[in-house]
Specification:
The protein has 110 residues and is mostly helical. The protein is built from six helices and no strands.
Length: 110
C-alpha cells in the first residue's frame, strides 16, 4: 500500500504541488488584503492539492497511449503497469471532490 501511494504521488509530481503552494497562498493573502483566517488558509491548501492532483491525474490518463509509444515516457506509472487505470480514475475522482469540498463548505446555501 505504501509503495502504491508513493507511486501515485510520483505519478502526479506531488513535489510540484508543494512548490506551487506559496503562489496559491499568496493569492489568498492578496484577495483577502491581509492574513487569511486559518479556515481560509486550510481551504486554499485543500483546494490547491485537490485541483492539481485531479488535473495531473487526468493528464496522465489522457496521455497514457502517447506515453506508452514514446520510449522516454514509456516507464511512467500507467503505461508501465505500476498503476491501473481504475486506480488512476479513483484518484482523479477523489481529488476532484477534494477540490470541490472547500466550495461547498464555505459557500452559504440559499
Amino acid at each position: 500500500m505504501r509503495k502504491k501511494i508513493q507511486t501515485l504521488l510520483e505519478m502526479i509530481k506531488f513535489k510540484h504541488t508543494v512548490f506551487a503552494m506559496p503562489f496559491a497562498l499568496m493569492g489568498a493573502f492578496l484577495a483577502g488584503r491581509g492574513v487569511p483566517s486559518l479556515r481560509v488558509f486550510f481551504f486554499v491548501v485543500l483546494a490547491m492539492v485537490g485541483a492539481r492532483t485531479c488535473a495531473m491525474g487526468f493528464n496522465r490518463i489522457a496521455d497514457r497511449r502517447f506515453d506508452a509509444a514514446n520510449p522516454r515516457t514509456a516507464n511512467r506509472a500507467i503505461p508501465a503497469g505500476e498503476v491501473s487505470l481504475t486506480e488512476s480514475w479513483a484518484m482523479v475522482i477523489v481529488s476532484g471532490l477534494l477540490f470541490l469540498l472547500p466550495v461547498t463548505c464555505s459557500t452559504p446555501w440559499p
